[in-house]
Write a structure and sequence with these properties.
By secondary structure, the protein is an alpha+beta fold. Helix content is 16%, strand content 25%. Strands 1-8-5-10-3-2 form a six-stranded antiparallel β-sheet. The chain has a four-stranded antiparallel β-sheet with strand order 4-9-6-7, with no helix packed on it. α1 (23-37) crosses α2. The model has no long low-confidence stretch (mean pLDDT 92).
């Protein structure tokens, strides 16, 4: 064949990483508040006791504290913009949808991590970074959020598909938490937070969200 065959990518996944407007001024207040609330009664009941990682109940967006209310408004506003950019809806359609969201905070101490999980019964997942130290030069993946590419979990891999071009290859994606930044991606994607190899804490807010059109009600419980 004189020329390469035409190829195109399919099954693309939307992913966004963007700063929140008030992140730099909001984060010190959030960090102090969340550290103070990292108490046994606030821990997620289904989570085993772990001195290195605190995973809260999923009621953060129900708190009345002003820093949390402001964070919620900015995270949901950013998500609406992401969904609008990724969708074929008219520009004002997303604003007419009812946006539901639940959130928790995670405090990852030195040598702690967050085991692999996924955001169930929702269309989108968000991770916001309240605090994160710079990774060590020799451990650049310290505290990184790893998003799992599971397209080949039931497939066969050999020399014919082991070294595909980046557009087509099966690779996990790494997002390095940066204070003030939020990432948004489809809720069905599994993720984890790698081992924190620094002497400082990492504080993240993890939220799941779904949209309802007028007259529609979600049948699935959170």
């Amino acid at each position: 064949m004189s020329s390469p065959p035409p190829l195109r990518a399919i099954f693309a996944t939307p992913f966004a990483s963007l700063p929140l407007t008030s992140g730099s001024t909001l984060n010190p207040k959030l960090a102090a508040l969340l550290r103070a609330r990292a108490q046994p009664e606030q821990r997620e009941p289904s989570t085993l006791e772990n001195a290195l990682t605190f995973r809260s109940r999923e009621d953060l967006f129900g708190w009345t504290d002003e820093p949390v209310r402001q964070l919620q408004a900015e995270m949901l506003g950013a998500l609406a913009a992401v969904v609008n950019a990724a969708s074929l809806y008219p520009e004002d359609h997303i604003a007419r949808l009812r946006l539901q969201a639940r959130a928790r905070f995670v405090l990852i101490r030195p040598d702690g991590c967050l085991a692999g999980s996924a955001a169930h019964n929702c269309s989108w997942c968000m991770v916001y970074c309240v605090a994160a130290p710079r990774p060590p030069d020799k451990r650049w993946d310290s505290g990184a959020v790893r998003l799992f590419d599971l397209r080949m979990r039931t497939g066969y891999m050999d020399a014919g598909n082991a070294l595909l071009r980046p557009t087509f290859g099966v690779n996990h994606h790494i997002w390095q938490p940066t204070p003030g930044y939020m990432t948004a991606f489809p809720g069905g994607i599994g993720f984890e937070v790698a081992l924190n190899r620094t002497p400082e804490d990492i504080i993240l807010v993890i939220a799941r969200a779904r949209f309802e059109a007028p007259g529609q009600e979600s049948a699935l419980p959170w």
